[in-house]
Design a protein that fits this description.
With 227 residues, this protein is of the alpha/beta class. The protein contains 9 helices and 9 strands. The two termini are 22 Å apart.
């Protein structure tokens, strides 16, 4: 796809872990490693999901159970993610893209806790992400798994385009890893940032060589005036 296509973009969608938040690949792994969850049970659940023996819903709640067993509470989970950082230039880039007239969204298999901690004031029009619930004492009380992770990310993009009254060709997606491939193939303009796999470079229309999201501003000067 020619890079001129970005001028038709109306909606810019971001992955979270490794894209907007640096120093992590998958937040679930970061949390499990911090709390010392049973690696064999984690691996078995992942294998069961990918083999179709359990649903994403079951996999999500298995993760919560493993974290709960190790004493993960809201405050302790925040402490676990505090060493992470927003990717260089993330806040400035989001603010300027919004000011230029783009609609912004997150499509991620991460956790709302992470987004709320690092981007509490970010101008996102849509957020498709896993939700974790806590009781009054901060204990994990359950959550709502997103239907828009992995292969579902492409369905998430289609849904957001529908809400916006536009085509997926008018959407950009910015991601970093193989779990972003389905949605990157669906988007009209796909950008790889801080990529973790050469497969991302094969699919992306553009790969940013430096981990500084302000580079995106050169490719999104503002939506065109087409009807």
């Amino acid at each position: 796809m020619a890079l001129a296509a970005q001028h038709d973009t109306r909606l810019i969608c971001f992955d979270l872990d490794g894209t907007l938040v640096d120093q992590t690949i998958f937040i679930w792994s970061t949390l499990h490693e911090y709390f010392g969850s049973d690696p064999l049970r984690r691996q078995q659940a992942a294998e069961d999901f990918h083999a179709g023996r359990i649903s994403y819903h079951d996999w999500f709640h298995n993760d919560l159970t493993l974290l709960r067993e190790k004493g993960a509470q809201r405050d302790r989970m925040i402490k676990a993610i505090e060493p992470l950082r927003p990717t260089l230039g993330a806040h400035e880039t989001l603010a300027r893209l919004s000011k230029r007239g783009y609609r912004l969204a997150v499509i991620s298999g991460s956790l709302d806790l992470v987004l709320q901690h690092f981007f509490p004031q970010a101008p996102f029009a849509h957020v498709l992400i896993n939700q974790i619930h806590f009781d009054a004492d901060g204990n994990i009380a359950g959550g709502i798994p997103t239907p828009y992770d992995l292969e579902g990310k492409a369905r998430g993009l289609t849904e957001l385009a529908r809400r916006e009254g536009i085509s997926t060709a008018d959407c950009a997606f910015i991601g970093d890893n193989v779990n972003d491939l389905p949605v990157m193939k669906k988007a009209g303009f796909a950008i790889g940032v801080n990529i973790k796999s050469p497969k991302v470079a094969e699919v992306a229309d553009l790969v940013l060589e430096r981990t500084d999201l302000r580079q995106l501003l050169a490719y999104f000067p503002g939506p065109s005036l087409k009807s």
